Structure formats: C-alpha cells, structure tokens
Amino acid sequence: MIIDIENFKRVHFIGIGGISMSGLAHIMLNSGHIVTGSDIKDSHIIKKLRNEGAIINIPHSASNVDGADLVVYTAAVKEDNPEMIRARELNIPTIDRATLLGEIMKKYTYGVGVAGSHGKTTTTSLISVLLEEMNYDPTVLVGGEVDIIGGNVRVGNSEYFITEACEYTDSFLKFYPYIAVILNVDSDHLDYFKNIDNIKQSFTQFANLVPNDGFVVACGDDPNTMSVLKNVNRNIITFGLDSNCTWNAKNIKFDEKGFPSFDVYHNGTFVERFELSIVGKHNILNALATLSVCHLLGVDIKKTPDIIKKFKGTHRRFEFKGTIDGAVIIDDYAHHPTEIKATLSSALNYPHNRIICVFQPHTYTRTYSLLNDFAASFDDADITIITDIYAAREKDTGIVRAEDLANLIKDRGNEVYYIKEFSDIVDYLKGTIKNGDLVITIGAGDVYEIGNMLLNFNKKAAIGA
User: Fold this and answer.
1) Is 78 tagged catalytic?
2) Is 220 annotated as a binding residue?
3) Nearby residues of 362 by Cβ (< 8 Å), 6 or more positions away
4) pTM of the model
5) Residue 240 counted as an annotated binding residue
6) By the 8 A CB rule, do 121 and 311 touch?
7) Over 50: is that where the pLDDT of 454 sits?
8) Domains (ranges, CATH) in the chain?
C-alpha cells in the first residue's frame, strides 16, 4: 500500500509501547500529527509519549480507533484484535509498522538501514552517536534505549535518517536505504523463513533496494553475507578482520575489563587506533561498520576515536546492573546461539572467578529449531540456569520445553539447573554467588527482572542491617 503520511492528521498506533512503534509515534508527534495509541500494559515508554502529547489507552478497545485517519499496527497484532476489526468496519486505512517506517525514510536523502541477524541495535546506536557528535543532526530510530540520545529515538533537522532494518517478516523490504548495512546473516526467525537460503534471498533483495549511487556496507568476514553479495550489483564496501576488506582492524588487544583496542586500516592505509568502552570482538566489527558508513557520509574518521570511546553501549547489551556480595550483575539481550556465544566469550575477558548464566529462551520456534546450537552455546559458563521459554508472539504447542535445553546442556558435561520461577532463581543465586563471580542474565524477554530482584533484595538487606 502506497500512502502519503502527510494526508493523515490523526494516526493511531496499536501496540504503541513497543520500542519501534513508540519511536515512530514520537516522530509523527514531532511532525505535527495527532497521535493516539493503545497497548496491553503501561510502561515508562508510554508515560514519556503521554508527556509529549500522545493520547494512549490501556488496554486495547474497539472505541480507541474511532476518529482515526490511519491505523498502524505491529506484527504481533492479529486480525482478531478489536481495534483492527473496528478499523476495518470504519474503512480506516491500516498499515504495518514497517510500511510507516519506510514512508518516513523515503523523505530523507541519506537513509541508512542497519540490517543483520545480530548487532543491529549497537551499530545503529554507534552510527547515530557519531553523527550527532559530528554535528550531522540525524533523525534516529533504534531498537534499544541509548542514554546519549535520550532514549530510542532522536528527531533531527537534516537529510540523514538512521534506523535498524529487521528482516523478520521481510519488514526491511519496505525501506528506502541509501546505505544498506549487512552486519551478518544467520539462521533465525524460522517461524517465518524456511531456511538459511530463504533468509539470504531476503537480504539480497534488501541490498538491491539501494539506488545505483548508494552503497552496500557488508561484513567481509561472514560467509553468508559474502554469499548474499554475489547477487548484488551495487557499490559495495566491506569491513572485517580480514585484511582484504575495505575497512579492517589489526593489532587487537583487550584491557583488564575486556574492552578492545585496535588499529583501523582503510584500503590498506592506517587511519587511527581506536578503543572501545563496550566488550567483545563482535563489537570491533560493529565499530568498523560504523566507520564505513560515516566515512561514506563525509565524516573525517581521524576525528572520531574519542567519540567511539565515549560510547558506553545501549541498555540490555552487556549492561552493568550492580554488585552484590562482590559479585557483578550483568544483563544482555542475546537470544540466539551466536549472540550467546559472543556474550559469554566477552565475559571470559571480564574479571571473574566463575561465570553464572541465567538464560530465558525466547519463542518456542527459535528454541526448537536451534535447540542443539543453544545447548552448545553455554560451554563458557561455569553454571547455567535455564528458566521457562518466553512466548512473545507465540502459543505453547508443546513442541519444546525449557527442560529439553537444560538436559542437552547437562549431556555436554556442563553444570545446569532448570528453575521455573524467578523468585526461586533469586533464592538460588543468593545462596550460590561468591565474591568475584560474574552473574549474567541473558534473553530478550523479562529475564532482566532477576537481576533487579537480586539487587533490590540486597538494598533492603543493607537497610535492614
């Protein structure tokens, strides 16, 4: 459906509390639209939108859409949603989130879509911070909260637009990128895609959305990404640790906290040495992707090392939460085996005695499809705790259980426990953790609450003492 968003005065968002939907609502408010919305529960994101002038109702109700000129919905909203039914009855145009994002992106000369199975949020955030600090005044929509830009969205007044480009349900095929970034291509979202070849086909289509004078920035170290590029006839810039890449890193070192430093080369010529304040080798690749994009937009890369170092990451990406009895509590959004391996590999470089990992699987289809890969991804943990699967958009059909994953981890000779209730996990941790331990909660659901519960208990205990 082709639309001109300027023709719609009041825009209603079903599921407005979502990280991307809330960002789009903010952009629409800023451009003068009346914004209404609904969600199943309140949140700090919704409160922020209300403060900006949005009218938001909890929960969903058919009457919420009355008077709307356009209705925007997320992939999680089904046709039997009462607001969707009401919109159809009233013949109100309805579009999905990705279509609206694409229409917004179309209005900018330099749209950057950051795609990839992993690393989208960090890379989008890093590009955004660098461009903002270099006075490019970009408009930004990111799938996480970044302190430096004040949340998950930033509205600028320039021709630059930076956004994550998610492949799920082929959403990113509705975008209009001048620069398409492909960080990596991996097996994921197998409730939608048939297999890895189907996924690579979608990434190929995404790359070919770039106009002839635009660019595809892609990881030269990733075999699946390089396979995608074989069918892309555009200007291609590569990044990676391989010296054959357009942008590459050499002389990598890690400090005592696991933060990497490295020399950056462009077309074989030394540029500068960079230091990161985020952990992991995977973030070196994210930084190289950032430098590749910003160089194409005219940024003097030699002026950026201090900006890169200042970036502390986004919430829920190896985020330091606090300490309890000398143990460090970290939270990470990883929900795919590749991401879990990267997170635990980063943890190995972080000061620790033991790594205790609490994992909440995310969706039944992902857990079932990648079950053996998940089991192998916890080898670097000393103790692993598995809790119940976070259903997200799915229903439990009995196809897989969290206990199945715990049993496979045990079969690999690793110490693992299945614990259903968060409160019981907190009790276990209170009796187990010791000075110097590193406790990491991992998952895309609400597993972060365990760290909060643990730290809050510690505060109450201290006050009581």
Assistant:
1) no
2) no
3) 335, 389, 390, 392, 443, 444, 445
4) 0.82
5) no
6) no
7) yes
8) 7-97 (3.40.50.720), 106-310 (3.40.1190.10), 319-464 (3.90.190.20)
